[in-house]
Every structure is written in structure tokens, then in C-alpha cells.
Design brief:
This protein is an alpha/beta fold. The chain is built from 21 helices and 16 strands. 42% of the residues lie in helices and 15% in strands.
Length: 481
């Protein structure tokens, strides 16, 4: 049988200094490999950025794909900065492999499927809209039987056709366990893996966030979770591959203490205690019981709190009501439970005037004094179909990016350019031009480094928790030089 070739693309075929990380493994591609294999379809996976990093040429990679003689080539376009690379690679492989059908899918492809098939139809055969397991399997079966992609497959958008929602695997626990060995070459940090725990629309309606939008576009109108036992089974499966550091970056935090406690108990029942367990969360996601469970579940536990702003007014306007004292208490609770609290911050939110920026600095100082480690400051990336983009005037926002082509700038811009020039600032606010938003992001990172001794002093006085403070300081400091 001819296989499906699953490909994680480069940012572009010419930009060797991407503005965002291109080395991670797309969980969607890993899940597709497992699903196809479970249904008797051979699959091979290629991580193009890592292969290029290891010295392969583009011609060699095309030749490698050609050797597999795939029936279908499926290219992941999960995030904004892979836009150009995914389409360039699709066109290249479509020309090099005339017997194969080339499709693109993923979160970003789903959001812009109409524009992609309308403007780039010569480079690909279809865009998969939403969760891709069932659509990709149907595409493979269609091509195997007829040589063509049936345009009526749910979740398949072909040039000249219309988009439709996919059929999804209703019970997430029915999805097979995935392996980090599905994509080659092996990742650079072979002992680190992300764990998929949920799919669907986040119930929070943060005005700037794309997750609720994409969750619905991908075929689920609400958030669905894997069971705690299934998540533990996935961690156990990856542990057997030598992975002992895990991060959960999806909607797991919405399950709160009960889901986290259940996961800790399931890991304990399997006699598993990873070297590190990291969780992304809102500051009010977990109480003392959940945090204590996280600390017990791993040799080291950390939580990445999306604080975003120190201004209650800005937080309310953005749909993230949060009082500064609640954030401080969340940091204190994490430390008391034995969990390292990291904090993440945004610039370019609506209503973010100088008074709000002062409040953010004040909250940064207070959280650092209590052990909160500021990880990063980012300008907001505003996407179409989010509340803030659709109702821009109500939020005092002027979007600068609207189309797939606009967002393709993320593929073309190098990291140094993104740090120093406003080309990737997607909007202006009533209180800030794109230049102002970028400058404030740099100033806030500088403020963190200038006051980093606060958090260093905190952890110097206690020996229980040992975050990599030198690495955090180095990463932030290097961003404004």
C-alpha cells in the first residue's frame, strides 16, 4: 500500500530565522499518524525544519518523500508563521509527485480555508477543515478507489467547492495513543513532550483569543476532555519512549481541580512520577488541592499563568476579569504547594493606557516578590472572527491584518525584525499605535530584567523549588538587544 506522508513544514523555504519557534512537534500530525495506523493505513512523518537543521537540503527532502511514493501528502498548517512554507511545500511536492494528492490542514488552515483554496488552488488539492482524523482517512480511501478526492467528504474544502464541518471522533478516548517517533528526525529535546488532553471550543470568551473560534470551526461547539486515565495512559506511552518531561498547553485547565487531581491519582496508580509536569492555566484555575496534586504527580511541577495585564479595567474589557490580588494569591498558593509559578503578559489589549501599564508593572513587581517568574511579554496577535476583531470599534481597536496574505508576514519576518520593527503588530488601539505596542512590549521585558533580582532573591531564600532563573533572564534579556 502506498502511504500517507505527514509533513510539518518550514516557516518558508527562504527564511532561515523564523520569528516564532518552528522546532515543536505538531500534536495534530502525531495524532493523525496514530489514527491512520490504527485503521490499517501506512503513514510516514517528516519534520522539515528539523531535517533542514540537521543538514538535509530541500532537494534531498523532496527525494526522500518521492522514495515513499505516497498516495496522499498531508501538510500541517497549525499556526500563523507556517503559512508560506506550507503552501510553498505543497506546490513543490505536487509538482514533484504527480501521482499523489496534496492536502493542507490545521488550525490556521481551517481559519482561512476559503482564501487558501480560492487563491492557492494550483498548489494543492484540498484543505482539511477542522479535526482531520476522519476526513484524512476518507480522503485516502477516496483516492485509493478513484484516484481523486471526493469533494463531498465532510471537512474537506476543494477548489471551487464549499467548506463544511468535519465528522469528529465523538469520544476522545477512542483516539489511539500517539508517538513522538512518528515524525523524523527526532526532536532536539528528546525527553520533552506535549500532551493532548482536550479538543473543542473553550468556554471562556476572551475578546482577543482565537481558541473558542477555532474550537467550533474544528467541529465541536464545546470543550471535550480525555479522561484522566486516558491522559495518564498517553503519558505512560511516551514515558516508554524515554520522555520524562511533559507539558499540557490546551484546555485542560478548564477542568479545574477535579481533572488535575484525577490525573495525579491515575499517574500514581501506574507508579509514574515524571521528572517535570507543566500546566498552562488562568490564575484562578486551580485551588490548593489541585496544586498539591500537581506537586505530588511529578518530581517538579510548574504552572504557566496567563496573567496578561495588571489592570482590572483592561482585564474586564478583554473578557478576562481578574483582580490583581487574585493573581498574587494564585502565585502564593502555587509556591506553598510546591509548584513553580510562571507568569505571561500581553501588550496591545483594549484600554491599555499609561495608567494601565503602571498597574501591570506594579503587579509584575508584587508577583515577583512572591515567587512568580515572568516568562515572557508578547504583543497581542489579533485574528479574524475573534470578538475583538469583529467588534473592533466597540473595543477601540483598528485591525491592520484581515486576510491570509496579511498574516503570511509571520512567515517572512525574521526574529530580529519582529523584535525591533512593527510589521507583525496586527492592530492599533485607541491608546497605542503599532509602534507604541511594540515599544511597550520591549520596555516591559526590560523592566522585568531590571527587577529580576526580586525573584532571584525569593528563590535564593528557599531551597525547595529551583526554577531555571538564569535561562529565563537570558531569554528575556536577549530580546531587546
Amino acid at each position: 500500500m502506498r502511504p500517507v506522508c505527514l509533513i510539518q513544514p518550514a516557516v518558508s523555504l527562504t527564511n532561515s530565522h523564523p520569528c516564532l519557534d518552528d522546532q515543536q512537534y505538531g500534536l495534530g500530525l502525531l495524532a493523525l499518524h496514530a489514527y491512520l495506523s490504527a485503521h490499517g493505513v501506512p503513514a510516514v512523518g517528516l519534520h522539515v525544519p528539523l531535517a533542514l537543521h540537521h543538514g538535509f537540503t530541500l532537494d534531498e527532502l523532496v527525494g526522500l518523500v518521492r522514495q515513499h511514493d505516497p498516495l496522499v501528502v498531508a501538510i500541517g498548517l497549525n499556526w500563523v508563521h507556517f503559512s508560506r512554507g506550507a503552501l510553498e511545500l505543497a506546490g513543490l511536492l505536487r509538482q514533484a509527485l504527480p501521482r499523489a494528492r496534496v492536502v493542507v490542514g490545521g488550525q490556521h488552515a481551517t481559519l482561512f480555508s476559503a482564501e487558501i483554496v480560492g487563491g492557492y488552488g494550483e498548489q494543492l488539492d484540498a484543505v482539511i477543515v477542522g479535526e482531520a482524523e476522519r476526513p484524512l482517512l476518507a480522503i485516502y480511501q477516496s483516492v485509493a478507489e478513484t484516484g481523486a478526492i471526493d469533494p463531498g467528504i465532510p471537512g474537506v474544502h476543494v477548489p471551487g467547492g464549499a467548506a463544511s464541518l468535519p465528522q469528529v471522533v465523538a469520544n476522545l478516548d477512542d483516539l489511539p495513543l500517539y508517538s513522538y517517533r512518528s515524525l523524523r528526525p527526532r526532536q532536539r529535546q528528546e525527553n520533552v513532550a506535549a500532551v493532548s488532553t482536550a479538543r473543542g471550543a473553550c468556554p471562556f470568551q476572551c475578546a482577543y483569543c482565537i481558541e473558542p473560534v477555532v474550537g467550533r470551526l474544528q467541529g465541536r461547539d464545546r470543550l471535550h476532555f480525555h479522561s484522566a486515565e486516558r491522559i495518564a495512559a498517553q503519558i505512560a506511552h511516551l514515558s516508554r519512549e524515554g520522555i520524562d518531561r511533559f507539558t499540557i498547553q490546551d484546555g485542560f485547565f478548564v477542568g479545574g481541580d477535579p481533572l488535575l487531581i484525577g490525573l495525579a491519582e491515575a499517574l500514581q496508580a501506574r507508579s509514574l512520577r515524571p521528572a517535570h509536569l507543566n500546566l498552562f492555566a488562568h490564575p484562578n484555575s486551580y485551588g490548593p488541592d489541585g496544586l498539591a496534586a500537581a506537586a505530588a504527580a511529578a518530581q517538579m511541577a510548574s504552572v504557566d499563568y496567563g496573567v496578561e495585564t495588571g489592570s482590572p479595567a483592561v482585564a474586564r474589557r478583554a473578557g478576562r476579569p481578574m483582580e490583581p490580588q487574585q493573581v498574587v494569591e494564585a502565585v502564593e498558593s502555587a509556591v506553598a504547594a510546591g509548584v513553580v509559578p510562571y507568569t505571561w503578559w500581553l501588550c496591545g489589549l483594549p484600554g491599555e493606557d499609561e495608567a494601565a501599564r503602571t498597574q501591570t508593572r506594579q503587579l509584575l513587581l508584587e508577583t515577583m516578590r512572591q515567587g512568580g517568574v515572568p516568562r515572557w511579554v508578547s504583543p497581542v496577535i489579533l485574528f479574524p472572527q475573534t470578538v475583538m476583531h469583529r467588534q473592533a470599534a466597540d473595543y477601540g481597536v483598528t485591525p491592520r491584518f484581515h486576510t491570509f496574505t496579511d498574516y503570511m508576514r509571520f512567515s517572512d519576518t525574521a526574529l530580529a525584525e519582529a523584535v525591533h520593527f512593527p510589521e507583525l503588530i496586527t492592530h492599533a488601539t485607541a491608546a497605542g499605535s503599532p509602534e507604541n505596542i511594540l515599544a511597550e512590549s520591549r520596555r516591559l521585558r526590560r523592566f522585568i530584567v531590571d527587577n529580576f533580582s526580586l525573584v532571584e532573591d525569593f528563590y535564593r531564600k528557599q531551597q525547595r523549588l529551583t526554577p531555571d532563573l538564569a535561562g529565563v533572564r537570558r531569554t528575556i534579556a536577549s530580546s531587546f538587544f
